[in-house]
Design brief:
alpha+beta; five-stranded mixed β-sheet; 24 helices; elongated; single chain
Length: 797
Amino acid sequence: MLLTLLLFDRLFPLRLPADYSPLVLAADGTPLHATLNRGQQWRLYAPLAEVSPLLRRLIVAKEDRYFYQHPGINPLAVVRAIGTNLTGHRARPLGASTITMQVARLLHPQPRTLGAKVTETARAFQLEWHLSKDQILALYLNHVPYGGNVEGVRAAALLYFRQPPNRLTAAQAVALTVIPNDPAHLGPGRSAHATARLRQVRNAWLRRFRRAGLLDAAVLADALAEPLPDRRFPAPRQAPHLARRLLRQWPGQPVVTSTLDPALQARAELLTRNYVARLRGLGIPQAAVVVVENRTRAVRAYVGSADFQDVAARGQVDGLTAVRSPGSTLKPLLYALAMDAPNGLTPATILLDVPTDFGRGYRPQNFDTQYHGPVAASQALALSLNVPAVRVLAQRVGLPRLVETLERAAFRQVRADRQRLGLSVILGGCGVRALELAGLYCALANDGQWAPLRYVRGDEVRSAKWLTNSSRSHLAPRTSHLAPRTSHLCSTEAAWLTTEILATLRRPDLPHEAEASAHLPRVAWKTGTSYGRRDAWAVGYNPQYTICVWVGDFTGRGIPALTGTDIGTPLLFDLFDALAYRTPAAWFARPTGVELREICPQTGLPPDTGCHSTARAWTIPGVSEARRCDHQRTVWVAADGRCTYCPACLPPEAEASRRARLTAYPNPGPELAAWWQAQRVPFRRPPPHNPACPVVQAGGSPGPAGSIGNDDDRAPRILAPAAQTEIAFDAEDPTAQVLLQCAADPAARRVFWYLNDRFLQSADPTARVFCKPPRGWVKISCADDQGRHADTWVRVL
């Protein structure tokens, strides 16, 4: 006998099919999303520890009370069954199948013949040989039929009672004990007759279990009165986009435990669906939302679209992983990097918001097409001004540093396109994913420290090693999971300063209804609108959570009403309101490396002797720019006010003889001065320099405040044409001309234009000059009446 069983085990090795219905759980074990298995059955895997102990005791008592004693078959039961069946004392033949034999039959179904019974018996011995009793019982509980395409106690508990198998009442446990005896007729919700029949059988077994001492009297009374469900509940369908993603990542895994919060996920799905329903009249069909817990980087809510079942709006597209234009949402990182740069800017640093050509004809505009002149960095970020942002990128941070930082924050499309990116990247000229933006803002909420977002609890999934004969390798995710890598994107001080700017409430992107709210949660947030109004973004964070909202159309269609301010922020603040009950009122603590210092409001720099008013602003000592304010310059002016002097032409004892006096004038710089002049903004300018000055007559340049030098920083700046550009120019067209334009120092009264070092004409500094340049490379020069000059080269085609 033993040799026969050994030969059987060698010829027909035990194979345990693991075709379970994939199930995604929330972090607390709540079922979120279930999918049919390959056989179109609901067979949800449940470890034995997650099955109600009462249900286990009842099933063993009813099906095989000597289960833990016999070796796979019960000899006494076999003898009793043979005797009863031969005498014909029962209308139906009495069986002797143990739980182990039933498992063998469930795993390898065969017609009920004598040969099949022998094979079943051999399989039972084989199961007992290779597996423990608890493993065999677990297989039974996961494969026992419950009617239709429902198999296993987890699927039955979920679909019939909407309960996990470890939270069943006594009445529910007894119902799941008796349904497998006649699953075709006892399944709940099949018909009124089936429900009545199930209640009758259940109550009979409740009384039998009470007589056997498995239930007490109080439990019996409650169980007998408990109603049965009149219908089968649908399978859970929350977080479908994340569920598909995790099941692709962990193929063959029966249960994946995510990091999602079930209550928050349900709330986020409801708010997103209702919000998009209100936007239908504006032609806006979709939205996506992700909520991240900052401390753990765990994703607590994942809404890939407003409605997964909405085929017309492409609801099955995962908007959180789609590559979109970020609009202005990368600006906070840029300003944080600029604060960390040598001679870094501070929130009070004055930036220029004036028309600017950054080369190759790139002349960005603000969203409202208006310019604001000199603005503080905090105001430039809060108002999301484009020109100052591009200036900061070009002059203080540099494109390579920004791109490298985004790569360290796992912006995959930026890495793929890095060779093609330009200054427009900061205004949305690159591709990003909502999950990447959420990770970036989560880093700002974590003192500038970036780490990957987490989607699976503990980065592990549940498994049972004995489920198959193969090794655990098939349960490994398709993507390699190395130790989580982290990266410092910016300093703690820069992250805090940026957060304080983003938490400013008096901003144009604050929702109108939020302005009237007395209980508005404190949030640091940023909006963004992509070119052509294809994407509306709103990303915000507080110490506990980061939320990223995207609204738009998955087709990439532009929508006139679509802006981050009007469309993105209302949903963002609705979500933060939903989190308010679990969010403490505490805010980010100020780092010790940030200090207040006196500044001149005109420049944001430490005040000089000519500064008549001061303010206080946050700075990073040893990092922030510390040069003295220079918003004014002092020059010698003739007593009659007709000219200025330098040391070379200053009359002897000028001050004592009252022939000249030191006078302070605004020192705006060429670009700001040119913009003020174009806008007709009045400001005081010094008189022209002494025409009899020997330095000027010798071709030199008088420096400010009387020093003599080249003064290159105050030379005219050629605004048009941009340097190194190619100009398609039709020399045969008599109307074709090239525009020349510059920004000159306020002290300059005239400028002189040259083509290839040949004089062209003189003009007012703000005048627009036109010319017909020759073909090929052309040198364009501009000099002012102070002797300062600038050159640029263009190629005329």
